[in-house]
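Researcher: Please predict.
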Amino acid sequence: MRKILISILALALFGCAENNPKEQLKNLNGYWEIKSVDSPFGNDRAYKFNERVDYIELQDSIGFRTKVLPRIDGTFVNSDTKETIIARIINDSLRLNYSTPFDKWIETVLKADGNELQVKNNRGMIYTYSKFEKINITD
């Protein structure tokens, strides 16, 4: 019985650490490449190659997301569009409030660590990203 109680306690502690919104917020900045979209409507999609990647920059829970085009020399070409982001912790979840001059929407962060970002929108679609590795032609 004692082993079961210790196992449950350890699982609860480590499970909560992975979904800690404050820790997730720390991991959002950087370049993210879309890997897949899982839809509750059955039209899931996996991405093998992406011409553009998302760049997220947040300071004190406020920032932006934009699309960038990676270049072979390791630099990026920026797009002219930016989505404003305000990150909020609500009910133990990290919510990203996006806005543009044309629309507003919210995504809930399901996972955000140094390697993977997973968000869910209000239609139930789950977007999975991996940290983008810059192209390095010198190796």
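Model: The radius of gyration is 17 Å.
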